[in-house]
Amino acid sequence: MVHKTILETFSPIFKKMIEAQNGDENVLEITDSDFETVENGINFCYGFPESVYSDINELTEVLKFSSKYEINDLKNEIEFKLIPQISNENICKISNAAIESKAETLKAVCQSKLIQFVKKATIVKEMKNLDCNFAKEVLANVCIPEGYMVNPFDVFTN
Predict the structure, then answer these.
(1) CATH of the domain at 131
(2) How far is CA 12 from CA 37, 46, 112, in A?
(3) CA-to-CA distance for 99 and 1, rounded, in angstroms?
(4) Number of domains present in the structure of the chain
(5) CA angle at 50 for the pair 110 and 102, rounded to the nearest 5°
(6) Could you read off the pLDDT of 61-114 as tens digits, one per residue?
(7) What's the whole-model pTM score?
(8) Domain of 149?
């Protein structure tokens, strides 16, 4: 059982959902995330951030959950848990999750690392699954001096 006050404190979305309920309803149904993801999010709200596991798949799902329900402290925590785990094996999955979750810090780190991987000719797993616009941004910046970013749409035109 989760206390409404805890949910309302951490999430304006949960607060709106609770306010929209009839007075005698005590259940919020969350159907867009699996049980583990919701449980990890709720545990964070109760002060157990260590319960948010280090598995990349779980972390990216919790990142999306935290973004959707605007649990910003959790979102920041997950971003900083993911950053040191970025590798050529998982960068596309993490980049896509960052884009979907509007996790700008994580997205910027992914972009920088992808540029490094491309410049070093490092094989990047699942590159075909990378968000197209993000891939254009990365490719547009591969040949540009460090510290200078270009608008990819100025480089790639239809």
Answers:
(1) 3.30.710.10
(2) 18, 16, 32
(3) 32
(4) 1
(5) 30
(6) 999 999 998 989 999 999 999 999 999 999 999 999 999 999 999 999 999 999
(7) 0.79
(8) 4-155
